Amino acid sequence: MISTRDEMLLYEKCRKFLQTVHTKEIKEHHSKLEDFKQWCQTQEEIPPTITVQQLVEFLNAVDYNLEKAQELILAHYRLKMQIADILFNQRDPFHSDVQNVWTVIKLATLPKLTQQGFRIVFTGLANTNPKRFNFFATFRLFTMAMEASMMVEGLFPGYAVIGDASGLTFHHIPFSSFGTVKKILQYVQYGLPISVKAIHVLNLSKIGERLYSLIRPLLNHELVEMIYIHKGMTLDSLYQQIPKELLPSELGGSLGPFGPFQSNLKRKVEFLKDWYKIEINQRQKLSSKERRRSSKH
After folding, report:
1. DSSP β-bridge partners for residue 105
2. Which H, E and C letters describe 44-113, residue by residue?
3. Do 69 and 106 fall into the same domain?
């Protein structure tokens, strides 16, 4: 845990930036935010220094339904505590593990929104060698990237995820730590403060289909219903839902090459290096008693 003085210095460095984050939503939903904030202050599992910018992200993820936001934020911190040492206590965007992930995977938010106003996320393997792939560091980066998307790009009514499964094998999944994999999937489904509206899977091989059949029982019905597996030699079925003008050239789209979009997201993640330290310190201020209680859920 960082000292109080260092924490104050970090907040001061981030203060001007935080003042620009989610200003429209904070103003529009001021009354509901106040109710949410007051309720959070009564909950021992929620960091007392949580910011109004974070609170509005939870509300936005559930279409500003206060009861659902309360359920989401409790699940968020309870599940986060269970996998904190693996995913959330090392969030340095310049750490070698995180930097290596950028060379192994494709990950970017695309600049144009869908007709419904959803932000599109594209991901896949840039290097298919499983020895280069760090499953846990990849998910760590994914959570940091989604945080960067919300804080820097703004809030959206939802996300549409496109996943290119080319090159995916059984060796990419750490089955020896499958209990931890289950907890990560629980966090993604029940604790992540974003609203995923659709998941489009491309180039799923026979091996990929077998992997999906193993993981599918761990997914809730709502998530399974939004997964679209696009088969065949063309991407016509994808274009019916996401037009070509919203996609990079690697997917037959007209946005141009994918590389600059990934570089742009990487810069946003690295820009938030001080914010990630603050977020870690928020959680570490929870009492050791509460951390032990949360880890048992």
Report:
1. 125
2. CCCCCCCCHHHHHHHHHHCCCCHHHHHHHHHHHHHHHHHCHHHHHCCCCCCCHHHHHHHHHEEEEECCCC
3. no
* Residue bearing tokens 């991901």: 123
- Both 261 and 161 in one domain: the answer is yes
Q: What residues make up the domain containing 101? A: 96-269
For the segment 242-274, what is each residue's pLDDT rounded down to a tens digit?
Answer: 999 999 999 999 999 999 999 999 999 999 999
| Domains in the chain, number | 2
**Angle 147-143-77 from CA coordinates, rounded to 5°:** 90
Same domain, 122 and 255: yes
Looking at the structure, tell me whether residues 146 and 237 fall in a common domain: yes
CA distance 242 to 161: 11
My answer on whether 30 and 135 are in the same domain is no
Query: Same domain for 84 and 107?
Result: no
What is the torsion angle, in degrees rounded to the nearest 10, for the CA atoms of residue 264, residue 266, residue 271 and residue 277? 160
* Nearest Cα residue to 129 out of 100, 149, 157: 100
Q: Quick check: 154 pLDDT over 60?
A: yes
Neighbours of 32 (CB within 10 A): 16
Whole-prediction pTM: 0.92
